[in-house]
């Protein structure tokens, strides 16, 4: 019995290797591009949108590229192995799409100087490591305005993930947008301490609704909160992708991450040999942050939101334009000034009116 | 006609050794069916999954890097489980060890403190893990509370404590408020064993732990008192073994090894403190301990097999686009098959005759 098994294993190994070698030879001229995902491709949020970007790359370049991905990769020691395996599998351009992949990406990049790496949402770069992110806070300012115009209770619920600057600046942008409509508006925040945990996200949404919030906003990746809002008959904003199918009566709009233009551009640069290490932070103007159709709201609110969207695109309106006060009432951004990008990217304080404490501060 | 499971005495060693093999064959059959249903060639899939990682020197190293913490924690858990103490919180002890050991790396950061830092970190990591493990032991001895619950709940306490530290006082001041500590200095990281790859000194410590544990559990009075305390507590009491001391002892050992694994991982492959420093090693090690039949050498084999399912799973995702869930299904099937094979070897099914016959 043992002998048979070991023979079978040996044959399996031989066939497996032969198969791998054959595909390797065929793929010699294709550019191999890989993605590393924090969640499942079916999360209908963050990872889903990155995978849409990957598919757009496939569509754009056809048989000139070969794409691959690894999903559900935990941040931490496993990430380095996955990224290294992708580099060793012959991928020439690797996108790592979660903040916690920053150090592993840099370590693998040092060992593989001929491979180009792109790390989403991080801040450390190298000769062959670029970083990229989107100005999601631009969209959140519009959400704040819509929420303030829609809410009857004057309370917006916010499901936050981790207290990192991107999330804090999102909460602040939403609050500033809301205050521009109703200075007395309240925001209630629940920290899920996870990017993707549908059960927890749904619980958080229900808790917020129980506490009087009638518009739910989220910075977590699943549509669970949208579904909870739909069930309870309140309104909600989608996150990362258009979640209208999960909340046909609940969704007001959604901030859609459109990574396709960036991914196509970077792949093209590698093909042309013009790829350079850069730091890209694009927003609405560049088509990277897109608002899903404005639904389930009166026409005047819709027109108001569209006007704000146009102003942000033209540069007339900046969500972090002064005067902005912090929670203690101190003037942080003077009238007419705009908060510099580096301060938004390291934001660790709330604007006036938010009744919460930044965790860990 | 009711069936009854009957325990068999004097099961031969050969049958016991064959049981896991049988389970593996069963898992491969289930796997083959799954691959066919998913539309893949099962032979090619098995090649990529189970054989490919064993042929490449790089992935072989990675296999050991991944199995290292599993076998170290699993060996510690064998002490607990043999004594019938159910420590489910190795993940928390791992985190506690990592935090306590890292404290030294952070206070000596940038001071050029010398080569004693890493050894001291390892000792502190083991102590931190042991102390964290002693809490459920104390609660059990003093108040009779279930160590299953308390040790599990302390996992979340440890994780949230780490979370607080890396977002608060231990945050890298130049890190744009992102939640992680500074990168450890060279005198606070595990030495690498090879020029290329990530194989580090931690695996040597893990193997030392396995050898010592094999000796202690198999050849000493301490090992005997653990075994007897677990299988026949009343007999152990008559023999004069102190139940409380066993409880404290096994939790301290198991916590220390988990804590050591934690600080090794942080000082090794990770290199600084982050909110997430474990892909569930403390929980996967429970499976490794059970699959290895609570014997340190068995746990080494089980850890390597588990590591192989992870690494093979990633290879299959990369080259065949098999979903991640396949890895999970594999691990689950293997576990159920081994437990089932175990029952079939140790017990036999007997039909219990109805009342009409004498």
Automatic annotation (TrEMBL), chain A:
Signal peptide from the UniProt entry: 1-27
GO-annotated cellular components: plasma membrane
Alphabetically ordered keywords of this record: Signal, Sugar transport, Transport
Domain of life: Bacteria
InterPro entries: ABC-Purine-Binding, Peripla_BP_I, PnrA-like
Domain annotation ABC transporter substrate-binding protein PnrA-like: ranges: 31-300
PANTHER family given in the database record: ABC TRANSPORTER SUBSTRATE-BINDING PROTEIN
Protein name, as recorded: Simple sugar transport system substrate-binding protein
Species the sequence originates in: Ancylobacter tetraedralis
Taxonomic lineage: Bacteria, Pseudomonadati, Pseudomonadota, Alphaproteobacteria, Hyphomicrobiales
UniProtKB/TrEMBL annotation, chain B:
Keywords on record: Cell membrane, Membrane, Sugar transport, Transmembrane, Transmembrane helix, Transport
Subcellular location: Cell membrane
InterPro entries to which the protein is assigned, alphabetical: ABC_transp_permease (IPR001851)
CC per GO annotation: plasma membrane
MF-aspect GO terms: transmembrane transporter activity
Residue stretches spanning the membrane: 21-43, 63-81, 93-110, 116-139, 203-226, 246-268, 280-309, 329-347
UniProt-recorded name of the protein: Simple sugar transport system permease protein
Organism of provenance: Ancylobacter tetraedralis
Lineage: Bacteria, Pseudomonadati, Pseudomonadota, Alphaproteobacteria, Hyphomicrobiales
